[in-house]
């Protein structure tokens, strides 16, 4: 089986500040990978490079064998860590936009998920609460049949009930052959759904292993291991 | 994909432009009504009434509105561009499976279209105002224009070069609208290269660009004057002998210059967003 994502000696610096320092790893299809690390460890920078939102200083990223570009965007479904919709839009206009640009977008899935949450598609984004906007963003992202889902802090800043909804939406809607990269520092909440965990510390990979191995090696949960690795 | 980019961008920008047009349209109607009412009031009453004061006020407001709507169109377009490319909406814009060149070109075309729509809107509003308030005068003007085009204007009297020159000048003016939008958007893109003060950097870039352009045109005028002072006789001779050729030459130069600016700034804007995109 070919790797879905290959990161090769990737470095990104902003002036003197090195955000990512010569990191290399691979993600195989069908894996759910936790991108874990404290604030400022380089998680969002890595995600932005994979999504071709910023260029690396050096090194290489390959998605399905290709550098980030139009083809990679066709197969990546990305959830940023901030609200990114134009707030004048109605939810239904957003669905039209996704349907127009993404061949793998499933309108019915989106409408069903919105219906489950009693979100009216004719509502304007600006009239929705912050939590509901986050759910709409997630619904748009998960209504695509993408090969790689990249979710940046999907459960940060939401209440525990909403976290459960978000995680169940992710797990029940992703294509089983696809991979998911979830960036978070709320490890306890997502630990049970992860296959692999990648710990980032100050732009370096502190650990990349399967959750199973981490648990058996350290004889404790990934969350406890994270706390140990990143103890201040 | 270009069509889809334009379609969605056009819709997004309409949320800013339509209210602006509605406000201006309401102002035109209000002003026309005030003028109508004012014209019905006898002169001896007018001197003591408040209606003439309001009519003058709405006249002034409409005039200011006309200038503002043309002036703020590029600003509104640039705000939309900034939000969708450099603001949080950029996370959606730049992850669409579309080439950056198509995104930039699509957005520039939309900005250009709104600049043209604003001009047409102001022109039509002025006609409506004239038609309502100065019905007889406007009918006279329309009939003179109609008469000119139908009976007096004989294309065969004009050399082909003059007609071609006029067409090229109109094309140059249209391309200039696009070039203006491309200039604003390119400044926004250059602002992206600064990590902390992106908006200030964009404004400074625009001011620097216009200043350099002023200096260059002054230098160019100075050099041309110096050159022409030696060759003025032959140039004058050429202009007298072949005025159509001179007019055609100037129009082609204007068109080429605007085309060059449009292409150059579209290219620079695309390259910067491709290589130096810096979403925070």
Task: Give a concise summary.
Chain A is an alpha/beta fold and 232 residues long.
Structure characteristics:
heterodimer; A: 232 residues; alpha/beta; Rossmann fold; 6-stranded mixed beta sheet; 3-stranded antiparallel beta sheet; 9 helices; 9 strands; B: 280 residues; mainly alpha; 2 domains
Describe this structure in words.
The complex is a heterodimer of chains A (232) and B (280). Chain A is of the alpha/beta class and 232 residues long. Chain A has a domain at 5-84 and 150-229: 3-Layer(aba) Sandwich (Rossmann fold). Chain A has helices at 43-50, 70-75, 91-101, 107-116, 130-142, 160-173, 187-190, 211-218, 222-229, and strands at residues 5-14, 17-27, 32-36, 58-63, 76-79, 148-152, 179-184, 196-201, 204-210. In chain A, strands 5-6-7-3-8-9 form a 6-stranded mixed sheet, sandwiched between helices. A 3-stranded antiparallel sheet of chain A has the order 2-1-4, with helices on one face. In chain A, strand 6 (148-152), helix 6 (160-173) and strand 7 form a beta-alpha-beta unit. The chains are: A alpha/beta (232), B mainly alpha (280).
């Amino acid at each position: 089986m070919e790797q879905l994502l290959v990161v090769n000696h990737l470095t990104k610096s902003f002036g003197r500040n090195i955000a990512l320092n010569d990191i290399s790893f691979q993600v195989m299809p069908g894996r759910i990978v936790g991108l874990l690390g404290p604030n400022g460890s380089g998680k969002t920078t890595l995600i932005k490079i994979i999504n071709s939102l910023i260029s690396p200083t050096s090194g290489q990223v390959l998605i399905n064998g290709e550098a980030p570009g139009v083809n990679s965007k066709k197969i990546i479904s990305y959830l940023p860590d901030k609200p990114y919709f134009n707030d004048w839009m109605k939810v239904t206009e957003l669905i039209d936009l996704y349907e127009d640009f993404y061949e793998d977008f499933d309108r019915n899935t989106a409408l069903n998920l919105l219906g489950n949450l009693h979100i009216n598609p004719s509502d304007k984004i600006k009239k929705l609460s912050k939590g509901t906007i986050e759910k709409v963003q997630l619904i748009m992202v998960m209504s695509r049949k993408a090969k790689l889902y990249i979710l940046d802090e999907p459960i940060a800043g939401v209440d525990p009930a909403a976290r459960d909804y978000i995680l169940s939406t992710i797990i029940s809607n992703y294509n089983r052959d696809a991979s998911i990269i979830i960036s978070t520092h709320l490890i306890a909440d997502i630990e049970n759904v992860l296959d692999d965990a990648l710990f980032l510390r100050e732009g370096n990979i502190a650990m990349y292993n399967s959750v199973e191995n981490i648990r058996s090696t350290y004889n404790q949960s990934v969350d406890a291991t994270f706390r140990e690795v990143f103890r201040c | 994909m270009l069509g889809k980019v334009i379609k969605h961008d056009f819709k997004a920008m309409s949320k800013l432009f339509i209210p602006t047009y509605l406000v201006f349209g309401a102002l035109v109607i209000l002003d026309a009504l005030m003028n109508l009412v004012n014209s019905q009031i006898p002169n001896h009453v007018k001197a003591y009434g408040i209606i003439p004061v309001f009519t003058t006020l709405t006249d002034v407001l409409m005039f200011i509105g006309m200038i503002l709507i043309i002036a703020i169109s590029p600003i509104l377009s640039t705000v939309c561009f900034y939000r969708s490319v450099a603001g949080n909406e950029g996370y959606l814009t730049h992850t669409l499976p579309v080439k950056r060149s198509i995104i930039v070109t699509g957005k520039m075309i939309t900005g250009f279209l709104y600049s043209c729509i604003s001009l047409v809107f102001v022109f039509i509003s002025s006609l409506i105002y004239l038609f309502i308030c100065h019905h007889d005068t406007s009918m006279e003007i329309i009939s003179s224009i109609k008469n000119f085009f139908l009976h007096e204007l004989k294309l065969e009297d004009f050399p082909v070069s003059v007609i071609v020159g006029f067409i090229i000048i109109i094309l140059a003016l249209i391309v200039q609208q696009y070039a203006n939008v491309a200039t604003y958007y390119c400044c926004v893109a250059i602002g992206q290269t600064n990590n902390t003060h992106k908006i200030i950097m964009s404004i400074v870039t625009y001011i620097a660009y216009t200043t350099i352009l002023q200096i260059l045109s002054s230098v160019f005028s100075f050099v041309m004057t110096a050159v022409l002072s030696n060759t003025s006789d032959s140039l004058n001779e050429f202009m007298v002998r072949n005025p159509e050729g001179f007019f055609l030459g100037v129009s082609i130069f204007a068109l080429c210059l605007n085309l060059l600016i449009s292409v150059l700034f579209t290219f620079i804007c695309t390259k910067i967003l491709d290589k130096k995109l810096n979403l925070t």
